[in-house]
Amino acid sequence: MRHTIGFMAILFAFGASGAAAQDENTSFFITSSNPGDGADLGGLEGADAYCETLAEAAGLPDRMWRAYLSTTGAGGVNARDRIGEGPWYNHAGTMIARDVEHLHSNGPNLTKATILTENGDEVNGRGDQPNQHDILTGSLMSGMASDAEGDTTCGNWTSSGEGSALVGHHDRVGGGQNPTSWNEAHGSRGCSLENLRGTGGDGRFYCFAADGPGGGALRQRVN
Questions:
Q1: What does the mean pLDDT of the chain come to?
Q2: Tell me, what's the pLDDT at 213?
Q3: In this predicted model, what pLDDT tens digit does every residue of 94-110 receive, in sequence order?
Q4: From residue 4, how far is each of 16, 18, 65, 156, 203 by CA, in Å?
Q5: What is the value of pTM for the model shown?
Q6: Residue 207 C-beta-side C-alpha neighbours within 13 Å
Q7: How confident is the model over 75-89, as pLDDT tens digits?
């Protein structure tokens, strides 16, 4: 009996340390929910703060969490320039991309099964009820902001009414100009949570650790 108890204690300790090791590498997730006002995220600053709030609540590492979102116009920002250099790992400790170039190539490990929330959960995709595979990015497949006419960022993430935003498909299937793209599948119908849900979304977005796994010393602001 003593041997059994001792063995179980060792297994418990090993399991706990293994889980902690996975958490230490977590540097990417998809938001488990929308902040509540559709594509009005309070701009990039508000979106970043929401990433950090979710990460803290989930017990993820204290990193420089940044939303994968682009903005347009004067002082516009490319999503790819906000998220650091990588590599990035999901909640399960699986690498989803080595670096920025890999992330925006045909080879990143981005699928419905690997794009997990901050709590390690999968998000509904096409075929699930409800479908929630439209993910806010405001970005082209290259990770750059669009220079096309018209709104592609819901007023730089300050509108929950008029406008539109580019969205990707986290499950890599569906309709639109680029149905298999995780960051630029098509434009949204509008910017309200109701409209985002009406075309297969839920106002979610991607969060990356800009300082990367083990890079906690790098805490400068990334625009």
A1: 88
A2: 66
A3: 999 999 999 999 999 99
A4: 18, 21, 43, 59, 49
A5: 0.87
A6: 32
A7: 999 999 999 999 999
Name the residue with tokens 């849900």. 197
Beta-carbon contacts of residue 4 (< 8 Å; ≥ 6 apart): none
Q: What is the spatial distance between Cα 179 and Cα 213, in angstroms, rounded to a whole number?
A: 31
Please give the Cα distance from 42 to 31 (Å, whole number). 15
Q: Contact at 8 Å (CB) between 54 and 31?
A: yes
Place of tokens 């009406």: 198
Question: Identity (one letter) of the amino acid at 120?
Answer: G
Residue type, 206: Y
Q: Tell me how far apart the terminal alpha carbons of the chain are, to the nearest angstrom.
A: 59
Cβ(137)–Cβ(206) below 8 Å: yes
* 55 backbone dihedrals φ, ψ, rounded to 5°: -60, -45
Q: Count of CB atoms within 10 A of residue 197's CB? A: 18
